[in-house]
Amino acid sequence: MKRILPQIGNMNAAGLDQLVKQYHIKAPNTNNDLSEPIAFNLMFSTTIGATGQVKGYFRPEAAQGMFVNFKRLLEFNQGRLPFAAAQIGNAFRNEISPRSGLLRVR
Fold this sequence. Notes:
Elements: H1 13-22, E1 44-48, E2 54-58, H2 60-68, H3 70-76, E3 92-94, E4 103-105
Antiparallel strand pairs: 1-2, 3-4
């Protein structure tokens, strides 16, 4: 196991699935079999520009505020869907290996 743990971050879905089956890994609370791993992106996708042809992504921590505050936007707009929502400001991220401090600001 000590040999495998450092390599897990570099494995693809098929490699992870093979490990789950090889070591008979089960769900901790229910002891049920695990489903096959799937690729999944935590970033929010959007389109950029007037034509909508350019694809862009929001970091989850940057886009989160727009979704959390949506109810407030709806109430402010008297129950009608807002035309647009934007977020301006700094984004703070927890870093695995911060260079000069605990948090990095972008």
